[in-house]
């Protein structure tokens, strides 16, 4: 069973030193980017320098940094999904020393009346993926420990938001009517694909995760709505908020 995967009684066989050598300490803060448009905007608008590179057989991932208000901020274009995003977070820490990760992406709304016109700050994530079970004891939900701090920042900046539970899934094609209704019954207001796994990795290694989301599609029985998904993926508002967060953590 996957719930047997949390093993802290024996040592891992694979380690990052075998691939990358000794750990580096170059930056503290790193943006986890999902949108290629936001990624390219950063490269075009700031004087960026490549500080490292994640080695992947299907294409290496550069890690960049730039200065903003005397703060050095790293960023990279992550892969989608809990396993990939969580693994890359750990690799970026080894390659750069970054331990404060600001992650922002899109999600599907489970209650448009609550999420419309608001950003979403996850407070807990349902572990409907596989990554988190290797990094945290088995239970249905994982707490998003910096949710309260993000709530204070959003309030300070007068940014409309709602804080609540989200559902992390590995499979967008199996968000069935029964599963959606069950998660809604438990209080979930959105569904996405990374938060539970990345939070588990960050908790395990002692990193800090600051995550917020923008709702795009709406999962409603018989009325699936996709019109706002592109805007939720690529709107630069999320980047500006992330940069404001970087000055406050």
Give a written overview of the molecule.
By secondary structure, this protein is α/β, with parallel strands linked by helices. The chain has a single domain (20-246), classed as Nucleoside phosphorylase domain (Rossmann fold), CATH 3.40.50.1580. It has nine helices and ten strands. A five-stranded mixed beta barrel has the order 5-9-8-6-10, surrounded by four helices. Helix 3 (82-96) runs parallel beside helix 7 (195-205). The model has no long low-confidence stretch (mean pLDDT 95).
Short description:
Helices cover 32% and strands 30% of the residues.
Q: What keywords describe this structure?
A:
single chain; about 250 residues; alpha/beta; Rossmann fold; five-stranded mixed β-barrel; 10 strands
